[in-house]
Amino acid sequence: MGQATGSGRFVRIGIAVAALVALVGIGVALATTVGDIAPAPDSNALVVEEPTTRPIDTLEAEPEAAQDDDAEAPTEEAAPPVPTPSTAGALHVEGTQLVDAAGEPVQLRGVSTHGVAWYPQYVNQEFFTELHEVWGANVVRLATYSAEEGGYATETSDRAALNDLVVQGVKYAAAADMYAVVDWHTLSDANPATNQWAAEEFFRMVSGALGDADNVIYEICNEPNGTTTWADIKAYASAIIPLIRANDPDAVIVVGTPTWSQDLAAAAADPLTDANIMYALHFYAATHGDDLRKTLSTAVAGGLPVFVTEFGICEANGAGEIDYASANLWVRLMNELNVSYICWNLSNKDETSALFKPGCAKTSGFALDDLSDEGLWLIDTLKSPGFSREDVALARAEVKPNAAGSEMLVSAEGTLQWTFQVADRWEEDGRTFFRYEMAGSNYGAGVKSWSIDVPFNGEITLEDAWNCEASAKGKNLTLANASHNGKVAAGEFVRDVGFIVSGPADLAVVEY
């Protein structure tokens, strides 16, 4: 890891219309500043401020569109075709590009294990097949720490077991039609030469077992750091690469770069002369921004083949805050450059960069509820075929307050703006009941009918509704006008409308 993270779709409303000032009589004060609707004191329209780390789907939009309401709506665009060993064959390097057996550029997108000595349970056939078929990944990285507790070069290491697990992991990946990166995870030992003896043993044995595999890529030093120079790394690589080539002459080999695999310029100035070599760049989106993105662009433009073998969307220590905007800009750039990328990490560790929630003990069969915020972001970014885009958007959505008395601006449909209030909640027979009261205000042209879809974060049962037509299915509630209140002229209101639903105690309206 890095050095020491139509009607019915809810959108945030940013409208400044002077005519709305006339609505102050019902307790809603609307700011005239362009782009904001602000509640007056004691208002029943509570506008929740947009959090800076709100998930946004802007990977195909211009960067400045990140604050655009339409840019936040989940797109239905399908994921691009995913090259796999069965379709692309053994990979090699041409120029700056990773290419298939026919010389066509390919992009690998996938996930990294955490240290396999600590989290071996995720290296299993069922899960690797799920990674490909459900998540849409075409590469998995097998991280073998060198110097950390239980690492290959330590006294507590079971080296034979680690070798076997890595080799088996590559075979699981092949059976799942994925590529696999065998990663020698240099970190606290800083200079890969520190434990070069162990690296030589590891790569000699692993490449000997995998020399005939078409799906294997070797990453020979994860994140050289400290005072380690490119000259140090190059000398180490010159010792390790021949050991791999003796068993696997044509394999792609990725070499780490100084400063936790961020100094591409040093490698570009004095690259290795071997064929089928790529250079690692690692980033964590909340720490690394425009400067490192420029480093990537400059290196590729200069002819350096780069592979982002590890990244996270949080801070560089694997924890801390998530920066979705920076993460999306990174993905956009990597897609534009056709640079392959691997997300850190497959574990339930209590840290931001872990893809599973700490309480999740599963080793396969993961549902959206099992995934961390980064996990949900990754599923969304990969446009994972095994998950509904709508369900992913719902899982990532902001949850509205559900305590009695909570008030919220929920939706604007056409010219109608709706506010909801949790008027009451109570427990009965193991379920929680919520009574919502809603009011609509027409700030534009008159309408003859209205309807609104209200997504919740859990399964709901509709118990009652008044002055509207209502139906519930799964997590969604659909409300439409009754016969007497569908026509709403400009400047008029819809009042005395509401409903009662029941569900789990944390049931709440969500916004996406």
Automatic annotation (TrEMBL):
Keywords carried by this UniProt record: Carbohydrate metabolism, Cellulose degradation, Glycosidase, Hydrolase, Polysaccharide degradation, Signal
Domain CBM2 as annotated: residue spans: 419-505
Record flagged with keyword Protein transport: no
Its EC number(s): 3.2.1.4
Region (Disordered): 63-89
Biased composition (Acidic residues): 63-75
Extent of the signal sequence: none
Keyword Hydrolase: yes
Catalytic activity line of the entry: Endohydrolysis of (1->4)-beta-D-glucosidic linkages in cellulose, lichenin and cereal beta-D-glucans
Protein name: Endoglucanase
